[in-house]
Amino acid sequence: ELGTSTSLFQTNFNIFGKCATNTWMSKTWEYLWKHDILIEESTTNLAPSRINDKFLMESFAGNGFTPTQLETLNRCRLYLNVTCLSDIASGNGKSILPHILQGEKLNPSAKYRYPPQCPPGRPQWNLWKRAILDTFDIERNFRLPSHHYLGRWLPSQNTGWCYSKITDGVYEQREEQWYECRAVTSRSGRSRHRKYKSGDNPSNLPPDVTPAVCVK
Fold this sequence. Notes:
Layout: H1 13-16, H2 24-34, H3 56-62, H4 67-80, H5 122-135, E1 161-164, E2 169-174, E3 177-184, E4 195-197, E5 210-211
Antiparallel strand pairs: 1-2, 1-5, 2-3, 3-4
Helix pairs in contact: 3-4, 4-5
């Protein structure tokens, strides 16, 4: 729910406390933090997906956004089902997907299950857009500066999409099955983005597949 790289009880309550649902767990977290009590957990922490990846909420906090603003930004993040910079970046890791700034959802994430979140309003999306642009120094054409470029995908990271050079096909994961999407030729032949048509039959993954970022 918090979207941070540390376990709940090791996360700074003063910064991220407003981002948590008001439950006995959050009350326990507040008490432990207030009295400087540390509990070590054995739960698995969230992990980055790519080299030089960054957690959005930690980046916003590091850029000086207040706890109240972080609460709003976290609602936007949960609605979009994103956690890291890699979740809102292009496949080459050098730019931000523009529609993410407007609050338009990408494909449902295959990596985590997110708690339900009502759509935020326009003022909240304006803050979200400002936070993304300011925190990651977004340049013209939604480009990331070179120090924010994302590198290769880390092992065992699953975006729900893969690409194979062997077949020139994109593969979409639906539940436990993979489905091949075949390339569609543009009439003009000048489209900046390649288009693929979803398949209906389960398919085996070729041996050379790598994670991909697709917009459905």
